[in-house]
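Reopening this ticket.

The earlier resolution said the output was attached, but the attachment link was broken on my side. Pasting everything inline this time so it's all in one place.
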Amino acid sequence: KNILKRRKAIVEHPFGTIKRTLGYSYFLRKNLESVNAESSSMFIAYNLKRLLSMLSVSELCERFKVAG
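Inline output:
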């Protein structure tokens, strides 16, 4: 029971944050492929926002240079 509560808190937190801070509460597209693309772009934006809160832009650029 405690494991399920913990998993629910960990998994559902990003969805609540996306809805609350990014104002994303419904899909604008109709078919499944378009909805998947739309949600993927929103999750990428969320992850980039989190990444920029952890690293500065210059540090992020340096890390991309090293990786590429």
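Reporter confirms the inline version is readable. DSSP finds three helices and no strands in the chain. The chain has a mean pLDDT of 82.
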